[in-house]
Design brief:
single chain; about 230 residues; alpha/beta; Rossmann fold; 8-stranded mixed sheet; 3 helices; about 15% helix; globular
Amino acid sequence: MTMQGRDGLRPVGRAVLYGAGGQARELRYELERDGARVVAFVDDFASGRQVDDLPVLPFEEAVTLFADCDWFAAVGAIAARVALAGKMMAAGLPLGRFVSRTAHMLPTARVGAGVQVFHGAVLSASVRLGDFGLVNFGCVLSHDVHVGAYATVCPGVHVAGHVRIGERVWIGVGASIRNGRADAPLVIGDGAFIGAGACVVGDVAPGITVAGVPARPFPADGVPRAGS
């Protein structure tokens, strides 16, 4: 899907949030602070209730009522976001793209479809954020950081320059990732899981969980495990 810079982002008007948990509630207030109007939450398993004064609708009903709204896959869990995004795209729904007005996005940074970038985040020079990527409160993505589709960057993460983060990577709260070089970027492989507070000082293989300072495979035998 086409990536956009800050100048190419259109304002979100009416929005539907596919999800009704904590991530959706946070996104709702971020959107509304920036002038959008969230009209409903959607939940396939717990519709027919209200969350924070908004209705929770089943998917089919929400599509009938709000097919012209911007839709967001408003869940933190990666596997769930992949599934919900797939349903939205299969239904041909308009995909929202949200970068908070209080996030600092440099002119050369670009973001994909369905992204969510929250208050206080920094997307520095030549950053790339893939489709349905999530960058939470207070994160810093330094120059030349590329983040793959469906990655989750939890609050307070700092990523130094020249880092390549694969698809469906989870980076836990407060983790930090050392810089690479222009000719040798530091690489976090697809599906890797970075534990909260970890300090990553080298490449992480696809599907591996790392934790600690410095970050090491966890458990110690380094058995690959899913990052979603």
